[in-house]
Amino acid sequence: MSPNSQFRRDLFPTPVFVGTSNDAETRASIEALSYAYLKKSYEENRPEGLVSEGWTDHEITDDPEQKKKKGITSFFNENLIHNPDWSDAYDFVLNMAGTMLSEHHSVQGMKIANMWTTIYPEDGFVPEHIHACFSVSGVFYVKAPKNCGDIVFRDPSWVAKTMNVWGSNKTFPHDGTTFSFTPEPGLMILFPSWLPHCTRPNVSGDDRIIISFNLDFGEVNFNAQLHDGVDITKQNPNKKGKE
Ligand SMILES: [Fe+2]
């Protein structure tokens, strides 16, 4: 947004697509699938990638207490696009993303390269990150109670833009270099994969559940393979997985 000025123009906005689905039935079935994943993780003592503080340390553990405290992501164990139980969820996410993007882009041949679920318990969050090697990424809010934690996007040029003030002691652009969205059930946000983002802690008193995904426009098959079914015991030789 440009300030009210005769001379100044603020350049280079970033396209982010935001939409909401009111399909409560699909959300309920994806929530059930996510909890089934979590239940199996506990039952099988499966090593799982953690979020919250565990994300920064690339912590993968079968410790149920750590899973419960920090929250888990299926990202490291399974690409859900290949799980038949998740095929309806795949179709739903692809259709919704396609509808939102098709307003401005050709989505012919678009697929989901990889998809994962993350369950954030009370105080759970994800530190700032990007989705390396992809073009467009997305998040769909399956379960998003009030105060479950905003998602915050940050302009990666924030260092350059904020090292000097640009009039009236304000940094450039005048309305800041971060932008937050408050989750609600059914919200989908599509964003450039290079755009850094994090979430605030979930203080709702209940879980926040999301599906995250990277889109494949046909040019990222190598990357799809790279992120497809990562063996976490090989990825993390110092973290002892279950034998
Ligand atoms: Fe993300």
Widest sheet, order of strands: 1-9-6-11-5-4-2-3
Q: What percentage of residues falls in helices of 4 or more residues?
A: 25-40%
**What is the count of DSSP helices, taking H or I runs of 4+ residues?**
7
* Low-confidence region ranges: 230-243
Instruction: Give the distinct bound molecules.
Output: fe (ii) ion
* CATH class bucket: Mainly Beta
Q: Which features does this protein show?
A:
single chain; alpha+beta; Jelly Rolls; 243 residues; 7 helices; 11 strands; disordered C terminus; 3-stranded antiparallel β-sheet; binds fe (ii) ion
Short description:
This protein has 243 residues and is an alpha+beta fold.
In words, what does this structure look like?
The chain has a single domain (17-235), classed as Jelly Rolls (Sandwich), CATH 2.60.120.620. 25% of the residues lie in helices and 23% in strands. The chain has 243 residues and is an alpha+beta fold. Mean pLDDT is 88; it is low at 230-243. The strands form two sheets. Strands 1-9-6-11-5-4-2-3 form an eight-stranded antiparallel sheet. A three-stranded antiparallel sheet has the order 8-7-10, with no helix packed on it. The protein contains seven helices and eleven strands. It is globular and about 65 Å long. It has helices at residues 24-43, 53-56, 64-70, 87-101, 158-162, 221-226, 232-235; strands at residues 17-20, 48-50, 60-61, 72-73, 111-120, 136-143, 151-154, 178-181, 187-192, 197-199, 208-216. Bound molecules: fe (ii) ion. Fe (ii) ion binds at residues 129, 131, 197, 212.
Strands, helices and their partners?
Blueprint: E1 17-20, H1 24-43, E2 48-50, H2 53-56, E3 60-61, H3 64-70, E4 72-73, H4 87-101, E5 111-120, E6 136-143, E7 151-154, H5 158-162, E8 178-181, E9 187-192, E10 197-199, E11 208-216, H6 221-226, H7 232-235
Antiparallel strand pairs: 1-9, 2-3, 2-4, 4-5, 5-11, 6-9, 6-11, 7-8, 7-10
